[in-house]
Amino acid sequence: LTATPDGVTVVTKTELVRREMPGIDIGIAGLLTYEFDVNRHFVTIEGLQPGTTYYYRIGDAKNGFWSDVATITTADNSDSFTFFHVSDSQGGAQRHYDKWANLVDTAFAMYPDASFLMHTGDHVDSGDNFKQWKWLFNSASDNLMSSVLMPTAGNHENHGEYALDDNFVLPNVPEQDTMTGVYYSFDYNNAHFIVLNTNDVPDDKISDEQIEWMKADAAASDAQWKFVMLHKAPYSNGSHYDDDDVIELRKTLSTLMPELGIDMVLQGHDHVYLRTDAMNNNEVVEVYEISVDNNGKSYTAKVNPDGTIYAINGCSGVKYYQTKDPADTDELFPRAEAIVDATYPIFASIRIEGNSLYFDSYGVKDNGAECIDSFAIVKDSTIDTPKYEGGMG
Predict the structure, then answer these.
(1) Which of 19, 56, 185, 279 is most buried, with most CB under 10 Å away?
(2) Whole-prediction pTM value?
């Protein structure tokens, strides 16, 4: 623990940065905001080998302070891995993040080999509140120290400026104005992840620059699986389903996602649970289904779906919203395949095993986690399956 492995280099730097928080904090709003300087530390590690676990500590040798031992496990370049989808962990008091921490603990206890968490925004109530970011990270630090939290810009990150830049170091970021958030992409094993910024919506439409970047980015990837993450949900049964910017987002993405080969869109914002069937051009597409087993559990699998599936996994914190009557949303898009009224935190486990994807969503309750929705996708070119010809209405 006192030396780096052969071939591994570690470079550190420290910057003095300005942060702020309210003197009187009432959650989403605060009074008597004051600014202060803190040291921000950066660590760059190069030379890590695939499929390897490295042990590390963070500390100050001069003052004799060291953290507990944590790990970094690199992708193994295989075609199998698990990740979590979480969203809307936001809270206005320290105790609110206890729910978030318990959810993270529960998820990793059930899936200890999960590689990372994909968060689809509203990490905190106010993006410029330094105190809330500390609560988010510190409350779940036992697991976050040995995993990775990949962020998406939510509208609450836009309560302030440069919230993602100030709290994360992100990969493969194209040139852009990052004041409201960041769009970027990354690969993990046989999957490609595209993260959008739904705060970047001039005239209620996602910016042309972001759309053109997404098209080029998706086209450049030959990954077996492709995911899009965004905060504001094109398909939701929450209160924002008919907002002007959400309507425009649905118009833009409903045909574009299948065209780009996107398997799933992971959403946030509305704090409700909904999962669509395979969608193309705002219609449900005909899909051939089979039954498959994985780890002793039976799944209904969609085979070679010629469309994209959208999921919004409630919230991972304390704010639970009421679902809308499905008759309201029926006027704008087909009824979802799964709708669950949830008054508890939710996370989804998404497992990739070669040409198969297994999706399980869990409600975390006082007596443990309960599976509230499951399905699978199988990609098998030897099976003749329907192609999109205008949808099923």
Answers:
(1) 279
(2) 0.96
